[in-house]
Amino acid sequence: MKKISLMIACFLLIVFSCKKDKTTEESEVVKGNLKEVVETVNGITYKIFTDKNATTFKGILVMGSGNDENNPTEGGLTGAAETEICEKAAANGYAAAIVKYRKVPGTTDWNNSAKMVGEDFDKCIVAIAGKYNIDKNKSVVGGYSFASFMLLTNSAYYNSIPYCKGILAACGATGSDQASKLKNPVFSITCKGNNEGDYSGKALYDQIPVNSVIKAKSEGITDNSCNTHCGGNWTDQMYAKMVAWLK
After folding, report:
1. Apex CA 93: angle with CA 87 and CA 99, to 5°?
2. Beta carbons within 10 angstroms of residue 99's beta carbon
3. What is the distance between the alpha carbons of residues 201 and 233, in angstroms, rounded to a whole number?
4. Backbone φ/ψ region at 162: left (φ over 0), alpha (ψ -120 to 50), beta
C-alpha cells in the first residue's frame, strides 16, 4: 500500500510540474522584435520587456502602475502607459519591466505603504540585474499616479533604492518636507490644474532646495496641453530623461 501511495504521489508531482512549466511558457509573448515575459524571481513578480535577440542591455527600467489610494490592490502588469514606455525602452536596448508591488495599506498608513512599494522596486531591480547580468546601478524607476506618490515618499524618508539614477514621476505629487529630502533625482510631469496636490510638475522641482545634490539632475514639467489627472502622453519625455540619467 505504501508503495502504491508513493507511486501516486510521484505521478501527481510530475503532473503539477508539467502544468507549472506550461504556465511559464504561456506567459511569454513575442510581438515583432520584442519579447515580454511574466517572471517571478526571489518572491517578486514582474513583466519584463526585452528585444528578443538581445543578450546584453544598456540598463534597467522598472515601472509601477496607478492604484486606488484608499483601497489599493497589487500593482497591475497590463497598464497601457507603463507598457508603452517599457516597449520603447526595450526596443532601444534596455531591459524594462512593470513590477507587481504588494497590496499596501494606502491612505491608512501612507508612509509604510511607500516603504513597502520602494522595497518591492528594489527587489525587482536586484532580480533583473542578477538574471540578466546587468549592473543594478544602471537603473531608473518610474510610475504613474499612486506609484509615483509612493516612490517620491520612499525617496524622501526611506531611500530603498539609493543606487537608482532617478525617478520618473508621472501625475504624482509630494509635500514640501518630502521634496526637501528627496535622495534620488526626479523627473516630475503632470497636467495643469493642480490635480495631484501642491507640489507636482514644475512646482515640485521648484521645491527641491537649490543646494540639494539632486537639483541639477532633476526636472519638473507642468503640461499645459492637458488639465486632468494623468491626462497626457509623456512616454517620449520620460524615455529621454531615462536615457540622460543612464549615460
Report:
1. 50
2. 30
3. 14
4. alpha
Q: pTM for the whole thing? A: 0.89
Strands 44-51 and 95-99: antiparallel
Query: For residue 201, what is its C-alpha cell?
Result: 510638475
**Alpha-carbon distance 40 to 36, whole Å?**
13
CA distances from 156 to 45, 114, 184 (A): 25, 10, 8
Q: What is the pLDDT of residues 170-211, one digit of tens each?
A: 999 999 999 999 999 999 999 998 888 889 999 999 999 999
| CATH no. of 27-184+232-246 | 3.40.50.1820
Q: Where exactly are the structural domains of the chain?
A: 27-184+232-246
Using only the alpha carbons of the chain, give its radius of gyration: 20
Contact 99, 67 (CB under 8 A): no
